[in-house]
Specification:
8 helices, two-stranded antiparallel sheet, mainly alpha, about 170 residues, globular
Length: about 170
């Protein structure tokens, strides 16, 4: 983990302490990612002899950024992105264009609503993006870090994301 990522994650965590807000973010991030790649999955073309769609090309720079921040978390997000890109390709091949746009709209509304509710109701503070626009790209890293920690990996991240019991008892 590089020092830039450590600083960004430390700032991000301050806006995401409530477990219900974090749960809302899992759904919101997945829904918003899928909503972003669905329309782009409509445009397929051949690149260097391989059939690709615009969604794959749009995701590559962000995946590269995540790999630079943390290789292991980037790899985890890569696996999630492959699954979501595959789902998007399957959806656009099985629904009408109107159906795809309707689903995209629903995913955006539900994704934004879940994150807004998470911050307003559970966290009782504005989203971190309001103060730090770069945090838009940290949400998936945060969710993946929580998943790694839940499986017993990445104790270095746990020390940033999960406050110690001592600090919790002093703040109550």
């Amino acid at each position: 983990m590089n020092s830039y990522f450590r600083r960004q994650l430390t700032d991000y965590v301050e806006y995401h302490r409530d477990p219900w807000n974090c749960a809302m973010h899992v759904f919101g991030i997945v829904f918003l990612f899928l909503a972003a790649v669905l329309p782009l999955s409509l445009w397929s073309f051949t690149l260097f002899g391989v059939e690709v769609n615009a969604a794959v090309l749009a995701v590559l720079p962000v995946l590269f950024y995540w790999f630079l921040l943390d290789l292991a978390l980037g790899a985890g997000i890569f696996c999630g992105a492959v699954a979501l890109l595959s789902a998007a390709s399957w959806i656009v091949s099985h629904v009408t264009t109107a159906g795809m746009w309707s689903l995209t709209a629903v995913l955006i509304v539900v994704g934004v609503a879940s994150q807004t509710i998470g911050h307003q109701v559970f966290e009782r503070r504005k989203p971190s993006m309001a103060d730090h626009p770069t945090h838009l790209l940290l949400g998936p890293m945060f969710v993946m870090a929580k998943l790694f920690i839940a499986f017993g990996f990445r104790h270095d991240l746990a020390s940033i994301i999960q406050p110690s019991q001592d600090s919790l008892s002093y703040s109550q």
